[in-house]
Design a protein that fits this description.
This protein is mainly alpha-helical. Helix content is 86%, strand content 0%. Helix 1 packs antiparallel against helix 2 and helix 1 packs across helix 3.
Length: 71
């Protein structure tokens, strides 16, 4: 493989890694915000619609958050 292709593949891989890190940060922020909204008294159905997640996922997130707080 020519050196220029190696550089392009390496750059593409770096771009993918960076995008995956951004997705992970965004998912974490969404998780924290949704849990905070529920804790603040928002109805879980409203939060799930706003966050475009299922109420089951929201329930699991809240359960995880409460487990982390108790440790």
């Amino acid at each position: 493989m020519p050196a220029s292709w190696k550089q392009e593949v390496k750059a593409a891989r770096n771009n993918l890694d960076q995008a995956l890190r951004q997705v992970d940060r965004a998912r974490h922020t969404l998780h924290a915000t949704a849990c905070a909204a529920c804790t603040a008294g928002a109805r879980p159905i409203d939060v799930s619609e706003w966050a475009q997640v299922t109420t089951q996922a929201l329930h699991c997130w809240r359960k995880e958050a409460s487990c982390e707080e108790s440790q």
